[in-house]
Amino acid sequence: MPSAVRFGVNYTPSEGWFHHWLDFDLDSVRADLDSIAALGLDHIRVFPLWPYFQPNRTLIRPRAIEQLVQLVDAAAERGLDVNVDGLQGHLSSFDYLPAWTRTWHRRNLFTDPDVLDGQAAYLRTLAAALADRPNFIGMTLGNEVNQFSAGPHPDPDRATSDEIDAWLARMLGACEQGAPGKLHLHAEYDATWYQDDMPFTQGQAARHGAVTAVHSWVFNGTAQRHGRTSVPTEHHAAYLVELSKAWADAPHRPVWLQEVGAPAPLIPAEHAAAFTEATIANALDCPDLWGITWWCSHDVSRDLADFPELEYGLGLLTNDRKPKDTARVLAEAAARARSHASAATSGPHTPAPRTTALTVPADPAVRSLCAPGGPVYDAFFRLTADGVRPTTVLDTRADDKDHLAARGITEVVSPEQVLPTPPGDTSS
């Protein structure tokens, strides 16, 4: 019997944001976790800040590791499982990289042998510290680390796709060494799916690690282009889930919607609950969904300066731990999933297969065709608006009957077959 979809939240501490690791207060953490558990969620994703935990390449602070374990144990007491991100990395517009990789010690994050040794040791240490905790889900290598590898980052650590492939294999191997058999993965922002020169590729996202992770943010041009209540905006998360499946080798590889949120002002506060409800419902219509982890748990305090305006109000809960309407929407969805899963007759709700597949180019050099405004993107949402429930398939697999059958696909269409001919184009 398939397991129920997981519902969780990315944990942003209500006091001190992620700087709370500098003044770790377990009582404050426990109060935060109480407010999360009260929503009926089953997991959190947590973010050690890499420079605070490994300030020198050969120093991984034991006290910081101990505090992470205390947080995971406190979560267990409240029935919450925990995924831990390692290489932080990038969070809410700020970069957190240790001094031994920057300026006078500038070394490439993805290719320098000493940096690779330090990263692997750090990830292995974090994983090993939690390996015996039954509520430890596993490691995510870091938060959207692909943003360091190309523009628009102002000082990127350039690497080839082959070098990224080797980096992913080594870092995931370090997590497995530390905590064998846990759910270890990597996660990038949507440039992996949309940006032609991004060295982190779609194939790597869909083949490395135990599950595929997607991060859905409609400030990427989707909400600007189409509006807050449009089909593309309300189905963007589902689109990324289904787009990722084209590159997976396993026909039913799980996909984790690991980050999704309601960013103001594109999604105004008074509309956030409706957006949340639509996004969750549409994502749940995707087969093989591992879980939905909302960004984020608590608002960023206005006492902290220089965040982009949208970051201050993304929490499901306020700084004084009061739930917003978005929290109630997520809580109700989680309760419905639990109810389905516990029903003796039906078991968890399983969406019907998506039988129509839209072809997408296998070549990562033209992945912008899948980005907002591209023909794949536009065709997917035209089909969605027509009630078709599309998925995607690589153009190189469009005639692979075994692959299509394994995924339940009975019809394959190209974007050209879906979209109208542009004015003045008389080609056949």
Automatic annotation (TrEMBL):
| Low complexity: bias regions | 335-346
Against SUPFAM superfamilies, the record matches this protein to: (Trans)glycosidases (SSF51445)
Which InterPro entries does this one have? GH
Gene3D superfamilies per record? Glycosidases
Q: Where is this region: Disordered?
A: 335-357
In terms of superkingdom, the source organism counts as Bacteria
* UniProt name for this protein: Glycosyl hydrolase
Biological source species? Streptomyces pseudovenezuelae
Traced from the root, the source organism's taxonomic lineage reads: Bacteria, Bacillati, Actinomycetota, Actinomycetes, Kitasatosporales
